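Let's practice the habit of predicting before peeking. Look at the sequence and jot down your guess about where helices and strands might fall. Then scroll down.
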Amino acid sequence: MLILITNDDGINAPGIQALAAELEKEFSVEVVAPDSERSASSHSITLNQPLTAVEVKPGWRKVSGTSADCVNLAVNKLLCPRPDLVISGINRGANLGCDIFYSGTVAGAREAGILGIPAFALSVDFRSDSPDSYQDAAEFGRKFARYLLSRRNHARIIFNINLPGLPKEKIQGARFTRQGIRVYSSKVREFHDPKGNKCYQLDGAVAGGQKIEDSDILAVEQGYISITPLGMDFTDYGLLAELKKDDPEARLKGD
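Done guessing? Here is the structure:
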């Protein structure tokens, strides 16, 4: 079984190093990751400039692009055969609730899902008092990889996995969860560059989240590993069923 690993923290990040070392105990592994940090790059694809892919050591390539670029390039050009599974991570910091729309880590897994390959994103909710180690997350990643490869029926579903930043003995277990809702305190900083041009810096932090039962946010807060299945189809079918009761042409007539 061949596993492709990517991330958005860059190829030299300790999380991807720990994950690759752990997976190599059981699987064939190829690493194709950004040459530098691409956090919060979402599902950006590089179309208007060439990409480079440089081998840094056997089985490891750094790409001058995003996580989604890395997976697309690896699957469609660099690797033969195609990987059986794609893992994106291990990310330093959680990707919970609405984070999935911004996260390059989740986008790496999503790109695999678009290409029809099972995938999951793996993140750790490190806190100020967390042990600075990725080993527990890497071990969980290896076990979950074995689980997915044994099922082989999740090609159009990806999984977003988040571990609490706790020692292994304090983790309460694992739960299958739904995507929660996070609230952010958005800030825009205004300043001037050396030439006097006005510039803006987007910033913000997590300000809280809704206490939704069975959500990824609540599970991690309670010390559980959250495992959230994410589909490729964003359609709101409940709303769609309601809208289909209307005649859109009649509703939209007039100036």
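How did you do? Residues 8 and 39 are 5 Å apart (CA to CA).
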